[in-house]
Write a structure and sequence with these properties.
Elements (H helix, E strand, L loop, with lengths): L1 H18 L5 E11 L7 E12 L4 E17 L9 E6 L2 E6 L1 E18 L6 E18 L5 E17 L6 E15 L5 E3 L2 E11 L17
Antiparallel strand pairs: 1-2, 1-11, 2-3, 3-6, 4-5, 6-7, 7-8, 8-9, 9-10, 9-11
Length: 222
């Protein structure tokens, strides 16, 4: 698992620096928590990278690959839906215990996203964003074969960027998103992995230095 996360971060950083070879591009890396309807109260980890092309101070287009990991335990049931039990000795007492297996879901959403930015001051820029694409999800269980799910997916969210004075090419941001992901396997079994996500991260790269025409004297630099 750690190798997968490290590989994702390495690819994101390398691709981000490559993308910054084009004027106006900004790379974004973030980490956060996410929830899924299918998992219930369990929260997972969400790593995200975006390579934005900032068309102007207001509008940006980007490519957004993510890595989402959920881990939870579930009771094993038979064909009738009844729990399966096994005998175990605990504290010298032999008793029946329900069989529990661990599930791991690894979601890989690949989305094209658009962002509308609303600079309020030189340092604070709220935004809204949305987009869609395709998601792949290997689902593994203890002592069972991996199941592959996939399907169309979408995302929408709001957030705010915070620029550090005297560092024009570096920004912090926070966001709250909703992910729509109803995925199916080869047998047309559907699983609803839709849910909310919260992120915090950094943006870096070549930002555009164009002031808004209506606020030339405001001191806002973008």
């Amino acid at each position: 698992m750690k190798k997968i996360v490290r590989l994702f971060l390495l690819i994101s950083v390398i691709a981000g620096f490559s993308a910054n070879g084009f004027a106006g591009n900004v790379s974004e890396l973030s980490i956060g928590g996410t929830q899924s309807d299918a998992v219930g109260d369990k929260w997972g980890m969400n790593l995200s990278a975006v390579w934005w092309n900032e068309i102007n101070y207001l509008f940006a287009l980007g490519f957004n690959p993510q890595f989402v990991w959920f881990r939870w335990d579930k009771y094993v049931t038979d064909q009738s839906g009844d729990r399966v039990y096994e005998q175990r000795e605990v504290g010298g007492v032999l008793d029946d215990y329900p069989v529990i297996e661990t599930a791991n879901a690894y979601m890989i959403p690949l989305h094209v996203v658009a962002k509308l930015q609303f600079p309020l001051t030189e340092t604070i820029t709220p935004f809204i964003k949305g987009g869609g694409g395709y998601t792949f999800m290997p689902l593994t269980y203890t002592n069972a074969e991996t199941e592959m799910y996939s399907g169309l997916s979408w995302t929408a969210g709001i957030g705010c960027q915070f620029r550090v004075k005297d560092i024009p090419n570096f920004r912090f941001f926070v966001s709250a998103d909703y992910r729509g992901s109803r995925l199916t396997d080869s047998d047309n079994v559907r699983i609803d992995m839709s849910g909310i996500a919260v992120h915090a991260g950094v943006q870096y790269g070549l930002t555009r230095e164009k002031s808004r025409p209506a606020t030339v004297d405001s001191g806002i630099v973008w």
